[in-house]
Design a protein that fits this description.
It contains 14 helices and 15 strands. By secondary structure, it is α/β, with parallel strands linked by helices.
Length: 420
């Protein structure tokens, strides 16, 4: 089992739009492997791409791109086809496409109230998705068995000539026990080891925090694909953040960064389930919205109802949204002064709160952060919504393959796949 590197996955922060630069003294074999990874990563992120565009974007010559594409095709990772419409006279440039139907990763998530498993093809396309309810108080380790059942159920529909490159598990950092107490989950080696043991001797599982992984997805494929410095805020039972600086995930000691929901914003506020008082999530979380709206704070299903009522002009629901949005802007203002990101992305339940109260959030941010931190700032709802975490988990699982398509851990499978 492996957890994401402290500086983030190898693929994060690499910009495939620019010409490649090899390390000084790299051998021809190392350069070839690097170039293979660059071509595969580009079509994985951008979809079907002509050889001509790959030549232009990656800064390699036509013959090199042709050889690399041919090798990836022989390995069963991509296909090459003549475009259906030719835009100019002469021989058309072949289009290189990821084998989404054949090369895949297993992406799993342990959400606050459900367990999900998806089979995600190379290229980021979700091929299959299953989910079950997560009982209150179920630990991450206890979730391994139900997740394994979901994966095996998906595998029954998988063709025999497919290639599984690995898997990743995203874990929400907050769960609530039946008595209302909050537990902060620890994404440690025991979870990945349990998953590896469940599926031995197959490729192992990477584990990570749900907000980190969803933020990674928005950075790679979502609304912040052009941003290297961002804060992704995720709301469910609690509030957590995925922070990306210079294109790299900020992990912290043993991966425990991003617990922004327990940033104290109101020392005279309500007690938090973590044992402190006035934590940010007591003011902006789902329970706070429901409380202000006169609803049961434990009824997560009612969050959608309150937001819908606010949109329809219900005074109490609208006031509840505005109170939560004001505290949301307050906390974001503090984070912006600390991190100085180019964008803040709102996901999970915070996505809908931000959309409903965006004007209130922006009013706070017009005055709180330093001008140098706010003048360039973009505030955006997540684009990938609830599937962000699964797409991000798949990116973690694909990273080893994309970094080196001929790496030792996958090479044997590639040979079988290529000859199938």
């Amino acid at each position: 089992m492996a957890t994401p590197a402290r500086s983030g996955p190898a693929g994060v922060g690499r910009n495939p739009e620019f010409p490649l630069q090899s390390a000084p003294g790299a051998s021809q074999e190392e350069i070839r492997r690097q170039n293979l990874g660059a071509v595969l990563r580009y079509v994985h992120l951008h979809g079907p791409t002509s050889r001509a565009e790959l030549t232009s974007r990656l800064g390699l010559n036509r013959s090199t791109i042709g050889a690399l594409a041919a090798e990836l095709t022989a390995s069963g990772l991509v296909t090459e086809e003549v475009p259906t419409t030719a835009r100019r006279a002469g021989r058309p440039s072949l289009v290189v496409s990821p084998r989404s139907d054949r090369v895949y990763a297993n992406a799993l998530s342990i959400d606050a109230d459900r367990l999900r498993a998806a089979r995600v093809g190379l290229g980021g396309r979700i091929l299959d998705l299953r989910e079950v309810v997560r009982p209150g108080g179920m630990s991450a380790i206890d979730a391994v068995g139900p997740l394994a059942d979901l994966v095996r159920d998906m595998e029954r529909a998988v063709a025999p000539d497919t290639l599984l490159v690995g898997g990743a598990v995203a874990v929400t950092d907050t769960t609530r026990d039946s008595d209302g107490r909050i537990r902060i989950a620890s994404v440690d080696e025991s979870l990945g080891a349990a998953m590896d043991a469940e599926f031995a001797p197959g490729p192992g599982f990477v584990t990570g925090d749900l907000a980190d992984i969803a933020g990674l997805a928005e950075h790679i494929r979502g609304v912040a694909a052009d941003v290297d410095d961002l804060i992704y805020l995720h709301g469910d039972v609690g509030i957590s953040a995925g922070i990306i600086v210079a294109g790299r995930l900020v992990m912290g000691h043993q991966g425990h960064s991003g617990k922004v929901g327990h940033m104290v914003v109101n020392p005279n506020g309500l007690p938090c389930g973590c044992g402190s008082r006035g934590c940010w999530e007591t003011e902006v979380g789902e329970a706070a919205l429901l409380r202000h709206a006169g609803r049961d704070p434990g009824d997560r299903a009612a969050v959608t109802e309150v937001l819908a009522a606010a949109a329809d002009g219900d005074p109490r629901a609208r006031e509840a949204v505005e109170q939560v949005a004001d505290w949301l802007g307050f906390g974001v203002g503090n984070l912006v002064n600390v991190v100085n990101p180019d964008a803040v992305v709102f996901g999970g339940s915070l996505r809908d709160v931000f959309i409903a109260g965006a004007d209130v959030v922006r009013r706070r941010l017009d005055t709180m952060p330093l001008p140098v931190s706010r003048e360039h700032l973009r505030l955006q709802p997540a684009a990938l919504d609830e599937n962000a975490v699964l797409i991000g988990a798949a990116e973690l699982a694909f990273d080893k393959l994309l970094a080196d398509p001929l790496n030792v851990g996958v090479a044997g499978q590639l040979g079988c796949a290529g000859s199938a």
